[in-house]
Design a protein that fits this description.
single chain; Spore Coat Polysaccharide Biosynthesis Protein SpsA, Chain A; UDP N-Acetylglucosamine Acyltransferase, domain 1; 2 domains; seven-stranded mixed β-sheet; 9 helices; 18% helix
């Protein structure tokens, strides 16, 4: 059995926010969601969040596999903690809601150490504040004692190693020792368990991480920025190690749930977040924002927004293309400057070169959509659909008033305002006849104001 308890009931005053602390985001994901998602991926059998009753929104945002212990205030005592532990074989992780960046690799290493050491505590060689206890080791490198920094002597203060708020336990022993202290109704301090383990001859292992920022607790906005930058750099390094070229990683943001295929090239100022999947051989030029989307193979995208959309292969986007939501793009399309699409399906080999808006529209293959074309899909009460067949030509500055069905090999003359049905092979012209009024222009311009 693998179990985790995330103590997340305290609101952190240093953030100076009306938003519950655990909802502040690391890149694109609230801290509590980031932790729960990690443990879900690691196939933990039980994930429990200890939260304030006032934070009922947590239940709406976390996966169904997360359980809850609600508290009335910001105190969790040993008795409450003991209620979460069953007398079963396994490992329990104990962590806090404001320590969001511990990696799966670190948790896994701690879990593996529990087979030999029934209590494992995370440590580092960088002190963040004076509340962190000094870790004194035995010759066999287990914990000899923990010393309060404020009570330490000069020699003890020379020791760099400090304890962090992340622990792994043998579950049966954790259950045993929690039951011993539950009557005291003390506020939970996991370090208080160290002497109980040691008194029965159990070794407590300090597991040191190389970079203290991995376990940085979030107490202030500065901490939040530091933690976010650490995670951003970690993710960029991961993709550099896995066949993705990222120029100027300091300006690139990639979310923890993003997947990227090898030989994709990412230039400056790209933000790629949410559950986004990007295939191989893509080029993301400067300044794109991509969220919750699927990008296929060998696309070129420049200064564009793609949200909740699917893009297949060999397409060319931008600059300033905007796929607002629920857009499906086929293969070998040109989506040019200032093209905006929402709820659009576009098949293959189409050209939308510039300044186009399509909403609730289906386009076939090999169509040309000219400059300034608009599908007028909203009548003030409801939205209707426009369908355009294969090999059709929609002339510049045309307005297609939905609902409208345009067949194959249709020409809509430039400047037309049209609606209804156009059969295969037809041309439709919807312009009013021009009228010239001799001399009226000069009179208009010379009129008295």
């Amino acid at each position: 059995m693998k179990k985790v308890i995330i103590i997340a009931n305290k609101n952190i005053e240093g953030l100076k926010s009306n938003i519950p602390s655990i909802f502040h985001e690391i890149i694109d994901k609230p801290m509590i969601n980031k932790q729960v998602d990690n443990f879900s991926i690691m196939n933990f059998d039980a994930i429990t969040a200890v939260i304030d009753k006032a934070n009922k929104k947590v239940k709406e945002t976390l996966p169904n596999n997360c359980e809850y212990l609600f508290t009335n205030n910001d105190i969790v005592d040993f008795k409450k903690l003991a209620e979460l532990i069953e007398d079963k074989e396994g490992v329990t992780i104990l962590t806090y809601g404001n320590v969001p960046n511990i990696t799966q690799a670190t948790y896994q290493a701690m879990i593996e150490k529990v087979a030999e050491f029934p209590m494992v505590m995370l440590t580092s060689d960088t002190r963040i504040n004076k509340d962190q206890a000094i870790v004194l080791r035995n010759p066999i490198d287990t914990v000899r004692s923990l010393v309060d920094y404020r009570e330490a002597n000069t020699d003890q203060k020379q020791v760099k190693e400090v304890a962090l708020d992340v622990f792994a336990f043998d579950n049966k022993l954790l259950y045993k020792y929690l039951k011993q202290v539950e009557d005291a109704k003390q506020e939970v301090n996991p370090f208080a368990l160290v002497p109980l383990f040691k008194a029965d001859g159990h070794h407590v292992l300090p597991y040191k991480i190389e970079d203290y920022l991995e376990a940085l607790p979030i107490y202030t906005r500065q901490d939040l920025v530091l933690a976010t930058n650490w995670e951003r750099n970690r993710i960029v390094s991961h993709w550099l190690d896995n066949g993705v070229t990222i120029y100027d990683g300091d300006s690139v943001v990639i979310g923890s749930d993003v997947e990227i295929g090898y030989d994709t090239v990412i230039y400056q100022n790209n933000i790629i977040v949410g559950k986004t999947k990007i295939g191989r051989y893509n080029t993301l030029n400067f300044g794109n924002f991509i969220k919750d989307s699927e990008i296929g193979v060998a696309n070129t995208i420049e200064q564009s927004r793609i949200i909740k959309s699917i893009v297949k292969d060999h397409n060319n986007f931008g600059p300033w293309a905007n796929l607002r939501e629920y857009v499906v793009i086929g293969n070998k399309n040109r989506i040019g400057t200032s093209v905006e699409l929402k709820q659009v399906t576009l098949q293959d080999n189409n050209a939308l070169a510039h300044n186009v808006y399509l909403g609730n529209t289906n386009v076939g293959n090999r169509c040309n959509i000219g400059w300034g074309v608009v599908t007028a899909n909203y009548n003030g009460k409801s939205k209707s659909t426009t369908n355009i067949g294969d090999d059709s030509f929609i002339g510049s500055s045309s307005t297609l008033i939905a609902p409208m069905d345009i067949g194959n090999q249709v020409v809509v003359a430039a400047g037309s305002v049209v609606s209804g049905t156009v059969e295969d092979g037809d041309m439709i012209i919807g312009r009013s006849r021009a009228e010239i009024k001799n001399g009226k222009g000069k009179l208009y311009l010379e009129r008295d104001n």
